[in-house]
Structures are given as C-alpha cells and as structure tokens.
Design goal:
Number of domains: 2
Oligomer: single chain
Number of strands: 13
Bound molecules: adenosine-5'-diphosphate, magnesium ion
Radius of gyration: 23 Å
CATH architecture of the largest domain: 3-Layer(aba) Sandwich
Shape: elongated
Structural class: alpha/beta
C-alpha cells in the first residue's frame, strides 16, 4: 500500500533533498509539497495543507515563530497525520524540544534509506494507537502516609479500567522509595522506568512497547527502579520528559501513576501532568489530618480542586471514622470507602494478581469496579471482553493439554 506524504519545508535545498528521500522509499508517494513562510505566528497562519496524507515530513527550525504551536495544533486534529521532523542539525536541547511536541520521528542531517524505512515500519506497527484523535490522560494515585493502600488501589483501578475499555491502559510506578508494582503484579524484573530514561534519546513507540510489560487484559505496566540506590538516577526533568513523550504518542487511553506518599520534585512533575488526582486516605484521625494538610498544599499549588478525588481505603464500620464526618472535616467528598479485608488483599499480593482479576466477585472488587464507573464515567464498556477472552484462552489451553 502506498504511503502518502505531505512535504513541508523552509529552504529550497532541503525541500529537494526530502523529496528525494521520499521517492527513494518504494511505497512513498508525494501528495503535496509546500514551502513554508519564515514566520507562522498568529492565528491566520495555519500550515498550508490541503491534501490528506499518512505522514507529514516537515523541516523543523527552532527560529521560526509559531511553528511549535502549529505542530501542536495538528496533533489535536481528529484524524491527525504522523509527523516526521527533519532538522539540518540539532543539539540535544533542540531535539528534546522537537520530541516533546509529540511527533513520531526526528531525523537529523543525512537520512539513511534504511533508517527512513525502519521509521515507517515502526509507525505502521505502532499506529494501533488511540482512534478518533483521542488523547492519553494522566491519573495520579497518591497517599499522605505509607501503607494506606496507594499501590493496591493503583493496581486495581488500572486493571479494572483496562478490562472495561478497548484501549490500552499504562500503569507506571513512580513511587521511587517503594517501587512494588512489579512485585504486586509478579512482573519479571527486567525493564523499569530507568531503561526508558537511559534510552530517552533513541526512544520510539516500538521500543517503548517492547520494554513495557503487557498483561492479557490490555494493562501495560512499567515498574519502578529495582534497587533503592537506583532511585537517585531518576531525576525530575527525566520523568517530565518521559511523561510528556508517552503522552504525546497517544498509545494509551489512560496513564495511571503510583506516586507513593511523598510530594517531591519528581511527584510534582507528575501532578503537573495530571488530569485526575486520586488521594488515598484512611478514615483515622492521623490520616485525615495528613490529608487535610496535603489538600491545603494542593490549594497553594493552585491545582484545580475539581480534579482532586479523595478515596478512603481500609474502611471498617466498627473502628473507622464515619465517611460523612470525614467529608465535613476535609471539605471534600469521599468518592468511595473501600472495605478493610486483609485476607483478600494479602492473597492477591501473594498471587501477584490484582484483586479485581483474582476474585472478581469479591465485595472489595465490586466496590473498586463501582469506583471506576464513578471516576471514569465516559469510559464505558465498549466491546472489549477480557473476561471472555481469558476464559477462552484457558479453555484452549486445557484442550491442548488434554
Ligand atoms: N482494603 C484493604 N484492606 C486490608 N488491608 C489493606 C487494604 N488495602 C491495603 N491493605 C494493606 O495495606 C498494606 C499497604 O498496602 P499498599 O497498597 O502497599 O500501600 P501503599 O502503597 O500506600 O504503601 C498492605 O499490606 C496491604 O495488605
Ligand atoms: Mg506503594
């Protein structure tokens, strides 16, 4: 099948060069060629593209006013094309800036034929991403003290959501002090967020998908650093780059981040990216006091209160503070009070499986599923039925074994 290109350039020589590159690719077809003006600032300066194409190959120049904004606008379009940027030369800063625009590929200087072909193949593989121009949204899950159940909730929310929707969900462990998502989901300790950070300069959607662990249900997982000393290697700016990159690729419908219980430079980067923030509390006096403090901090940070949702975990009617009283104290509704059930939770931890998957009919699993419906009302079940799929796979396996 032909791959249609729109070619946009600033300098004549570059335009001719890029056209040759496209024609050197056997299925390459040039739909449209346009020279761009030296400024693209202002609303009256959209990119001059009339013909639909699969890929826009664009010359990128940092000094052109409005260019970044125009590129970002294209990414917002419902049927957005893939964008390949070409830079005559670039330092790491410029390259990072270009990558942050969410484009699929960046080429610098001489483009090797093989390199160009591989980029197109990667794109064709990775273009299974979100449909209808949907964008990845970020959810943070955090507590104000360790042990309130942040990881338990993050894992189960992510699993429950992934099982409900057709698009993939990515769970990322950003609790650098206690990265246990990998172990809670029994993921072989191979790749972690450190691999993404260390290879950021040559990151592409295919590499990302190769190192991210995928569960059958459509839940993808990227564990945190394996050793405590590795946490020093995870810098806030690197986390910011990774989050913006993953977001820009729009491969996942939801990106769920376990932030643990510290508010530091790294977790604040995640908070800045968040569309929805879940604060996990226990209905005890110390936990609610801490929660109140953290809500005040969010206020100081001018975070939109509408995106903060409080969830109580480990609720027991015998000893916990009444959720209504807690709501009054916090001045914030409590979206759910998830029951205390040590046995069920520990069992799921020991089995390395989310509770909602291990014991789907359990009362605590039902409470989590209801919470997912409240928190993600627009993500209705759209035909993806992992339950059935898993069942079928088990049946086939049993048959094969018989
Ligand atoms: N709903 C619950 N009922 C009983 N125990 C729970 C519940 N949620 C979490 N726990 C227990 O609390 C402990 C901490 O859970 P975890 O999710 O690791 O918390 P965090 O990530 O906030 O440190 C675990 O030992 C787990 O068994
Ligand atoms: Mg945890």
């Amino acid at each position: 099948m032909p791959v249609r290109f729109n070619l946009l350039y600033f300098t004549e020589g570059t335009g001719q060069y890029l056209e040759e590159v496209i024609r050197g690719f056997p299925q390459g077809m040039v739909s449209q060629v346009r020279q761009l003006p030296s400024s693209l600032a202002g609303d009256r300066n959209p990119l001059p593209v009339e013909t639909p194409a699969d890929i826009w190959l664009m010359e990128y120049r940092e000094d052109v006013a409005g260019l970044d904004q125009r590129i970002e606008e294209v990414q917002q379009q419902a049927d957005q094309p893939a964008i390949f940027l070409y830079l005559q030369q670039a330092d790491t800063q410029t390259l990072l800036k270009a990558l942050r625009l969410g484009v699929q590929e960046c080429f610098i200087g001489q483009i090797k034929e093989e390199e160009f072909q591989q980029a197109i193949q990667r794109l064709q593989k990775a273009r299974k991403g979100l449909k209808n121009g949907e964008k990845t949204k970020v959810v943070t899950v955090q507590g104000c003290k360790g042990g309130v159940g942040v990881s338990f909730l993050a894992v189960n929310l992510a699993q429950s959501l992934a099982a409900r929707i057709a698009d993939p969900v990515l769970l990322l462990d950003l609790d650098l002090h206690n990265s246990d998502i990998g172990s809670l989901l029994d993921i072989p300790p191979r790749y972690t967020i450190l691999d993404v950070i260390e290879n950021f300069d040559r990151l592409d959607p295919q590499y990302l998908q190769d190192i991210i662990h995928s569960r059958d249900s459509g839940l993808a997982v990227l564990p945190g650093p394996l050793r405590p000393e590795d946490r020093e290697l995870v810098r806030a700016s690197a986390v910011e780059n990774v989050l913006q990159y993953v977001r820009g690729q729009n491969l996942y419908r939801w990106l769920i981040l376990d932030l643990g219980d510290v508010l530091d430079e790294v977790t604040l980067k995640a908070v800045e990216e968040a569309d929805l923030m879940i604060l996990v509390v226990q209905l005890t006096v110390p936990s609610l006091r801490d929660a109140k403090k953290i809500l005040e901090t969010f206020q100081l940070l001018e975070i939109d209160p509408g995106k903060i949702k409080v969830v109580a975990n480990g609720y027991s009617s015998a000893v916990s503070i009444d959720p209504k009283e807690a709501e009054k104290f916090l001045g914030q509704p409590i979206m759910a009070a998830l029951r205390f059930d040590h046995e069920a939770v520990i069992r799921s931890f020991n089995e390395g499986q989310p509770l909602v998957e291990l014991l789907p009919g359990h009362k605590l699993s039902n409470e989590i599923s209801q919470l997912v419906q409240i928190l993600f009302p627009h993500d209705n079940d759209n035909g993806h039925r992992p339950g059935r799929w898993l069942k079928l796979k088990t049946l086939l396996r049993l048959r094969g074994a018989a």
